[in-house]
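ok, trying the design again with the full structure, not the truncated one.
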């Protein structure tokens, strides 16, 4: 059975009297250990879709089953447990705390989980090693390049051992060469650790690192393209 399955998902935003149909009936399913891309022009609904997949937001209608559970019938507590236990998030702007070291940033999700300090440090060092930053653990974000900052953010998303990583324009703030190295890292995490990855991008080259691309337009999926 698929890791996640969306059926006829819509999302309507109300801005005063104006209704914005951000998602207009999205149906898709993604298997465990898949690596897929979502591509489309600005405003086509990519971030809205990713936020719903990540249980950061709820759809206006439709059904969403994640890991065999119906998301629309979850309480807020269930939603945050689901997010914290099985999903890692990576963003275009890295979202690191500037007053903490790389290690301190990676430790954060473990602090929320109440993991003791020694164990936290060990797990965080291990995650930083997976992204190739074992020699930068005490550096602060301003002392790291953009690509290195994104690696720290990826280590932070990995440290809780999530089944699923959701990345919204993960290479959007990086030059193309650095972006490529982040894509190689995703491929490695997908192939070697079996992490399911869903990435949003508007760059066709970046989308090809996934095994398939969902093309979006006006809140709908226009077509699904397989990459060989
Ligand atoms: N919080 C919000 N309130 C109102 N409209 C929104 C909100 N978030 C997104 N939208 C609108 O929904 C549509 C899809 O947005 P978004 O998912 O951010 O697109 P993308 O990530 O593809 O650029 C856009 O028309 C956008 O203006
Ligand atoms: Mg977006």
């Amino acid at each position: 059975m698929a890791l996640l399955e969306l059926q006829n998902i819509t999302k309507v935003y109300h801005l005063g009297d104006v209704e914005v149909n951000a998602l207009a009936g999205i149906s898709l399913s993604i298997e465990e250990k898949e690596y897929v891309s979502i591509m489309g022009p600005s405003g086509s609904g990519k971030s809205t879709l990713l936020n719903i997949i990540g249980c950061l937001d709820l759809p206006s209608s439709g059904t969403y089953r994640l890991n065999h559970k119906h998301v629309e019938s979850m309480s807020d507590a269930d939603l945050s447990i689901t997010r914290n236990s099985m999903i890692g998030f990576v963003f275009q702007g890295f979202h690191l705390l500037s007053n903490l070291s790389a290690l301190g940033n990676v430790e954060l999700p473990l602090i929320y989980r109440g993991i003791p300090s020694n164990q936290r440090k060990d797990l965080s060092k291990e995650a930083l090693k997976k992204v190739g930053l074992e020699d930068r653990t005490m550096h602060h974000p301003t002392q790291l390049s953009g690509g290195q900052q994104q690696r720290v953010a990826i280590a932070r998303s990995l440290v809780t051992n999530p089944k699923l990583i959701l990345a919204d324009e993960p290479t959007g703030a990086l030059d193309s060469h650095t972006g490529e190295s982040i894509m190689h890292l995703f491929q490695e995490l997908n192939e070697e650790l079996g992490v399911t990855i869903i990435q949003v991008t508007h760059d066709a080259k970046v989308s090809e690192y996934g095994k398939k691309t969902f093309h979006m337009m006006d809140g709908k999926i226009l077509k699904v393209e397989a990459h060989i």
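Keeping the full-length input from now on. The CA atoms of residues 22 and 219 lie 5 Å apart.
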